[in-house]
C-alpha cells in the first residue's frame, strides 16, 4: 500500500486535484478490472479512449485517476493526477511500484509518433 505522493515520488505532473495522501492498493489500466482503492490510468487508445471510462471506474471504487484530460465534473472523494502523457507516467509507476498491478502491459506509441519515425 502506498500513497499517491509515494507512488509519484518526484515525478512531474501538470496538476493534482484531491488528496495526494490517498492510499492506493493497486494500479489498473483496464477499466473492467478496477476494484476498490485502485488507481485507474485513463489511456488514450487507437480505438477507445480510456478517459470515457473514468466515471465507471470511480463507481467501482477507484480512488485515484491518472489522466491527460480532466473530466468536466470532479468527484471530491477522488484524487485526479493530470499529466501530459499517461502512458509515460504509467510505465514509471508500474515498474517501480510494489503494489498490485497487472502481470503484463504493452506500451504502444501513438500512431503520429510512429509515422514520424518511418
- Report the sheet with the most strands, covering strand number, pairing sense and barrel closure: 5 strands, mixed
Order the strands across the largest sheet as they lie in space: 2-7-6-5-4
- Let me know the average pLDDT: 83
* Sequence of secondary-structure elements: EHEEEEHEEHH
Q: Low-confidence segments, ≥5 residues, pLDDT <50?
A: 100-118
Number of domains: 1
How would the global form be characterised? globular
Tally of strands: 7
Q: For the record, what is the CATH homologous superfamily label?
A: MurE/MurF, N-terminal domain
Radius of gyration based on Cα positions: 14 Å
CATH class category label: Alpha Beta
Q: Which structural class should the secondary elements be placed in?
A: alpha/beta
Q: What is the count of DSSP helices, taking H or I runs of 4+ residues?
A: 4
Strand content: 15-25%
Any idea of the CATH topology?
Answer: Udp-n-acetylmuramoylalanyl-d-glutamate--2,6- Diaminopimelate Ligase, Chain: A, domain 1
Features:
five-stranded mixed sheet; Udp-n-acetylmuramoylalanyl-d-glutamate--2,6- Diaminopimelate Ligase, Chain: A, domain 1; 7 strands; globular; two-stranded antiparallel sheet; 118 residues; disordered C terminus; alpha/beta
Amino acid at each position: 500500500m502506498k500513497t499517491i505522493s509515494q507512488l509519484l515520488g518526484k515525478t512531474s505532473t501538470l496538476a493534482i486535484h484531491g488528496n495526494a495522501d490517498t492510499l492506493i492498493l493497486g494500479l489498473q489500466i483496464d477499466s473492467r478490472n478496477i476494484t476498490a482503492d485502485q488507481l485507474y490510468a485513463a489511456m488514450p487508445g487507437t480505438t477507445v479512449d480510456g478517459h470515457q471510462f473514468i466515471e465507471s471506474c470511480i463507481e467501482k471504487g477507484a480512488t485515484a485517476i491518472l489522466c491527460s484530460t480532466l473530466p468536466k465534473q470532479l468527484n471530491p472523494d477522488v484524487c485526479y493526477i493530470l499529466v501530459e502523457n499517461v502512458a509515460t507516467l504509467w510505465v514509471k509507476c508500474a515498474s517501480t511500484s510494489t503494489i498490485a498491478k497487472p502481470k503484463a502491459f504493452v506500451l504502444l506509441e501513438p500512431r503520429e509518433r510512429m509515422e514520424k519515425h518511418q
